[in-house]
Design goal:
The complex is a heterodimer. Chain A is mainly α. Chain A has ten helices and no strands. Chain B contains eight helices and nine strands. In chain B, helix 7 crosses helix 8. The two termini of chain B are 34 Å apart. By secondary structure, chain B is of the alpha/beta class. Classes of the chains: A mainly alpha, B alpha/beta. Chains A and B meet through helix 7 and helix 8 of A and strand 5, helix 3 and helix 5 of B.
């Protein structure tokens, strides 16, 4: 647990500074609530936060799921077809430059007020990191290993299944970790573009009501959620791809 | 057993001519070592024999050949046993049956007890033995070995050479062994082919003809080594 000590100290120090600034300074509570006020809101608004959190968490998880399935499928297709890769890679990069803030309201008008536009927006944001990392993982396989597989009479599919897919797994997990962080932002954007619930909606409602502490409390919940997802993926990484973390120098010989 | 015939082969990569007018013959069941300075196209020669490349000119004729690359290239996510059994798995043998065929060989190679170990838990010599098992289990008559022991320390290397000589005595194959180690060539091969610097071609040949098992300090072996070294320079 010593590894947790340093971040804990840092967070406490930052919170302390923030508290002191908010309490002693002349900043209005409506602009910057003190951490204690945020904590207070976390407790008093807990049922409200919990309700909206469940909505947002559902969107985030589903959205990441959609992005993973679509991103990996796309990476595999691009990996197998050089023609497809050349034709669509620029398009893929371009998709990432689309300003989501601009198209989010349009998507809401187009797809409706419910889950669909949220999934589309989260999926769109997460798709790129997932696809690019998966494709890099697939293409990064040692060319010597490909040659070896060919002299073992492995078919294209065999090489994919036995070598390329497992070799790409660490990259895919890295992509998923990036996706987790951006998915939360995507969910908030999507909810603010048009929604009747979720933490993004709650933040949007809280600010004009001068419930700034509640808005901050929602941000805290979102951050904690992203950190937990990230941690879960790191854990999965250690379980699923232990070879990617052990260095050659650790061998007992 | 299948032979390997390389006849007047030229292979170039752009302006760099790796092989020019290279000829070589390995009879069925024979072990031929190819020695040459680095960059003389030895690896290209092996890839031509394995059908991974085509010659620009000349003819390459070989039975089905399997490549044992310089680095062991074991799959880090698979156990030693599954790495050795990889060719069987690729050929559609079930996992259970493939493991059963690989398992007895582990004992023969002194790898007993390491079946479940991941490659990064094995020493360099063990990894190389697993890689050689994988090569054997490909079940091909021709083995193309690309400096298989170059990455090992001197002691492990000589142990591995003895071990390879025994393995081939037990299970003869047609072997084309590329190496820059003249001593290794003399200890392991029936014949040693000496190549020129790039563009590589055969400039000499030594019939080893020493009884096995060979001792590297045997005066006859030493004098053959000297002859080969002379041809190289």
């Amino acid at each position: 647990m010593r590894r947790a000590a340093l971040p804990t100290v840092l967070v406490l120090a930052l919170l302390g500074a923030w508290e002191a600034y908010a309490q002693l300074g002349s900043v209005d509570d409506f602009l910057l609530p003190a951490p204690t006020e945020v904590a207070d809101s976390l407790w008093t608004d807990r049922s409200l936060l919990w309700h909206d959190f469940r909505v947002t968490a559902g969107e985030v998880l589903l959205g990441i799921g959609v992005a993973l399935v679509a991103g990996i499928a796309c990476a595999v297709a691009l990996h197998f077809s050089a023609l497809l890769r050349r034709a669509t890679y620029p398009l893929l990069v371009a998709s990432q430059t689309v300003p989501i803030v601009v198209i989010a309201p349009l998507l809401v008008v187009w797809l409706g007020y419910d889950l669909a536009p949220k999934l589309a927006i989260i999926g769109l944001i997460c798709f790129f990191p997932v696809t690019v990392t998966a494709l890099d993982g697939l293409r990064g396989v040692d060319p010597e290993l490909r040659k070896l597989m060919r002299t073992l009479d492995a078919s294209r599919w065999q090489t994919f299944r036995r070598v390329e897919a497992p070799a790409a797994l660490p990259s895919v997990l890295s992509g998923a970790k990036i996706a987790v962080a951006v998915a939360v932002i995507g969910a908030v954007l999507a909810e603010q573009a048009g929604s009747s619930e979720g933490l993004g909606h709650l933040i949007l409602q809280a600010i004009p009501q001068f419930e700034t502490a509640r808005a901050y409390a929602a941000v805290v919940v979102l951050s904690a959620f992203a950190v937990i997802l990230f941690g879960a993926l790191s854990l999965a990484e250690r379980r699923l791809v232990p070879w990617a973390h052990r260095s050659q120098g650790d061998s007992p010989a | 057993m299948d032979a390997v015939v390389v006849e007047a082969v030229t292979r170039a990569y752009g302006d760099v001519v790796a092989l020019r007018d290279m000829s070589l013959r390995v009879d069925g069941g024979e072990v031929v070592a190819v020695v040459g300075p680095s960059g003389c196209g030895k690896s290209t020669l092996l890839e031509l024999v394995c059908g991974l490349q085509r010659p620009d000119a000349g003819r390459v004729d070989s039975g089905p050949a399997v490549l044992m690359p310089q680095r062991d290239l074991l799959l880090p996510w698979s156990s030693a046993l599954d790495n050795a059994a990889l060719p069987l798995l690729v050929h559609g043998v079930s996992r259970g049956a493939a493991r059963e065929r690989a398992r007895p060989l582990f004992a023969q190679l002194g790898l007993e007890g390491f079946e479940a170990a991941r490659p990064d838990e094995l020493s360099g010599g063990m990894r190389q033995r697993v890689a050689f098992l994988r090569t054997l289990l490909a079940g091909k008559p021709v083995l193309a070995l690309d400096e298989p022991f170059a990455s090992l320390d001197a002691l492990t290397r000589s142990q591995m050479q003895e071990w390879l000589a025994e393995a081939l005595a037990r299970e003869p194959r047609t072997v084309l062994l590329v190496t820059h180690d003249v001593e290794e060539a003399v200890v392991l091969a029936d014949r040693v082919v000496v190549m020129s610097p790039r563009p590589g071609r055969a400039v000499g040949e030594i019939e080893v003809g020493l009884p096995r098992p060979r001792v590297r300090t045997d005066p006859a072996a030493v004098s053959l080594r000297e002859r080969a070294l002379e041809m190289l320079t």
